[in-house]
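Work package 3, deliverable 3.1, input record:
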Amino acid sequence: MGRTLAQKIFDSHRIDNPCGDIHVLRLDAVFCHEITTPIAINDLIHRGKDRVFDPDKIKVVIDHVSPAKDSKTATQGKILREWARRHHIADFFDIGRNGVCHALFPEKGFARPGFTIIMGDSHTCTHGAFGAFAAGVGTTDLEVGILKGVCVFRAPETVRVNITGKLQPGVYAKDVILSLIGKMGVNGATNKVIEFGGPVMSAMSMEARMTLCNMAVEAGATCGICAPDMTTVKYLWPFIQADYASTADALAAFEVWNSDPDAVYDGVIEHNVGNLEPMVTFEYKPDQVKAVREMAGTPVDQIYIGSCTNGRIEDLRVAARVLDGKKISEQVRGIVSPATPKIYQQAMQEGILQIFLSAGFCVTNPTCGACLGMSNGVLAEGEVCASTTNRNFSGRMGRGGMVHLMSPATAAATAVTGCITNSEIFTGQRGEL
Amino acid sequence: MKKFEGGVLFLDRSDINTDEIIPARYLTENDKNALKPYLLEDLELSGFSAQKDIAGKGVIITRGNFGCGSSREHAPWALEANGIHLVIGESFARIFRQNMFNCGMMAVELPADTIDRLIHKFAAMDTRLETDLGKNRFTITADGAREEILFSISEFDRELVAAGGWVDYADGKY
């Protein structure tokens, strides 16, 4: 019987099967940030087990509150920094070299096909875009991962989502995933892997695939996965060229992970996006989605473009194309946070930051801050934010605040008018993935 | 092993997320007990007051997909800091459920109709729940009403509870 990509990863990494469908897997990478790791570090110290299973497989970044906003966040950074130094963890990204974890780590080549990856962060599912099994976990799982290099999972059932059709102008990966979550529900893929496929996924860049996989957890999924292909190989080539004679060789090695043609799925969803319009969330759950057209005219107070969902260079390019030569509404403030220093520099070199600044945006350093209401763009009670992030939970970006999730194109158009607006009227051209 | 008993807090809504259980503004705490005053601070639910309704409770009974959203283990820790070691629901988000057992606590699923019946029967009363782990049985009592309900958890989850959590379990084994 054929196996899915996730099953192949489980079979190749399983070190124990304590009972039934419970599997203990060997980990290829453990990612850490300053919010969920310090308590694990302190507990290991308290237990007299301040060790790491393999310093080369642990990647560490300060990203959620950067730079520190107060003594408490400074202490979190200090605990992480001292721990990384103590254990000779070479890949530690301190203030200035740091970026949003799920944008920075792929950029460094840390996510690879066939890998098992955990992090104390629910959007770790993003790295599945590279054909990895990457799952968000809590601090205790992280602690055991750091100490032992293992993690426990239920056997993954896989839902296959075939994305078909041809995307209309102004419609992007964010709109695809919002519409899919609307279809599946916030609990629709709990304990499952969502394997994205079909011609629309195949045509997507790695950045767009990361946007898809990033929000798999908003349907409850353990991980989103895209089978590795030549797009994956080309993205990773700077990091793997010493290992393979050619990109074709690398592709052949990666493709062994791909689901077999006769793999058994827990379900198959045909998601035709040919008639899909730009989407936006309403109310407080990510499966509460509507066409932007239906929400058009809803006033907002703040626009936020950034995050592990949509803070990558392609996202900034799309937004800049909408904003070019325009000013944002005087009724709103705009905040853009390029997700990594590399993206920041690219945006600077391409003149994108100039467009944002001329339009009246505040350009912040790379950080997760605003997305979860910790720093750099927190909402006040009763305020509304048009945001390219991933969660519209009540109070997510600040107590009493309201969040409408949307694509960078829609967010940029919304910034110009001050109310939820379809970007197509500004660009008048077909958008790219 | 932790105790799985006490007054019952009924949260009659699905999809209660971890931002509602413990808002991100408190994730800067490096001491689990510091989370105690902030449990469910942002939960807006008709008739619920975090200040009045949490004290003295040891168990939560809720609906579906409890603990969805962020992976923050601060959610189970905030429950633990308040003496709540058991959440009973129709279903749980994967990470939250694992975090509970990883801490030696329990997230136990019961059928939707059972949850519905319990909420209608007991939610308005001062309700208490006790757990017999050996017999897989909850006993729920309130003002003359009494009900026994059988539950099941996997052997692995049972071992995590007995070990006091995943660190102790894994450290001895791997």
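The first strand of chain B starts at residue 6 and ends at 11.
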